[in-house]
Design a protein that fits this description.
single chain; 10 helices; four-stranded antiparallel sheet; 13 strands; Rossmann fold; alpha/beta
């Protein structure tokens, strides 16, 4: 199985916003980041994939041959986590464990307790517990993640899992992603959305970029870093270099932006510095171009 999810022609129309048509595949065995600015359509797409929101047209295939997201067998293979309030706010960690144990036969209560400890939450077995309403936004997300990760699933679909986490917790989440993928030797996959990839780059193998309801770029991170280059130089070189760049920002002293790697030699001839971009730099460049094209 090459792809854990295949999306064919998905559309969803709201007043003032249209998603799609989306044609994209999520590779099996890797962590895929769905990257885009707020309002790009990431959450809408994830909600459709997980059956939270209905689609207007198109089809999604999971695990090579499953298409009905309402099928309990399919849902049992997928761990979904929303960035919104995922459980009632008057619940405690013990309530979460009780409900997950009833709802999913692949929920491991001991693993949930271990994850709570690892994510610096209170012990879900202790007598006196805080309700979620008393948790910070970051700790709410840690609780949601612990609940989903305590299930024995084959695919994680997470909407903005790192947005409310501090840098240390994001680093732990990256480690957890890697461990999750490695446990089944290529049989598990992760799809997560983000509007800021900087702290999650270590956990990302494949990237899908979205803007204005459409997929604008996709590929394995290493391939994208070969397709594009980071360019920067002094201000006097800016006008010549800009013609070969897909995104550009500059001031009185210098400029920086992204260009196709095929133009690297020409850009070097203008006394610019050409380097391999980080995924964060790629994201800024690709999304900036999408905004400029929309004007």
């Amino acid at each position: 199985m090459d792809n854990v999810i295949e999306i064919n022609g998905i559309t969803k129309k709201y007043k003032g916003f249209t998603l799609g048509k989306i044609e994209v595949a999520v590779p099996c065995g890797f962590a895929t980041a769905l990257i885009g600015a707020n309002g790009a359509g990431k959450t809408t797409l994830i909600d459709i994939l997980c059956g939270v929101t209905g689609k207007d047209s198109g089809e999604v295939t999971y695990f090579g041959d499953m298409t009905d997201i309402d099928d309990d067998k399919l849902r049992n293979r997928i761990g979904y986590c929303s960035s919104a309030n995922f459980f009632p706010l008057d619940w405690t960690l013990k309530n979460i464990a009780n409900s997950m144990e009833i709802g999913f036969d692949n929920f491991n209560r001991q693993k949930f307790a271990e994850l709570c400890n690892r994510l610096k939450l209170e012990n879900p077995t202790q007598k006196k517990q805080k309700k979620l309403v008393k948790f910070s936004d970051g700790n709410k997300m840690r609780a949601y993640l612990a609940a989903v990760l305590a299930r024995d699933t084959e695919l994680l679909v997470l909407d903005e899992p790192a947005s409310s986490l501090d840098p240390l917790a994001r680093d732990v989440l990256c480690d957890i992603f890697r461990e999750y993928l490695n446990e089944r030797d290529g049989e598990r996959s992760v799809l997560f959305s983000t509007h800021n990839i900087a702290d999650m780059e270590f956990a990302t193998d494949y990237a899908i970029f979205m803007a204005h309801g459409k997929v604008i770029e996709q590929g394995f991170v290493e391939d994208l870093k070969e397709k594009y280059v980071l360019v920067h130089g002094d201000a006097e070189c800016a006008d010549k270099a800009r013609k070969l760049m897909i995104s550009f920002s500059g001031g009185k002293t210098g400029f920086e932006g992204i260009a196709l790697a095929e133009h690297a030699d020409l850009l070097r001839a203008y006394d610019t510095v050409v380097e391999t971009p980080t995924l964060h730099q790629l994201s800024v460049g690709i999304l900036r171009k999408a905004e400029e094209d929309e004007k």
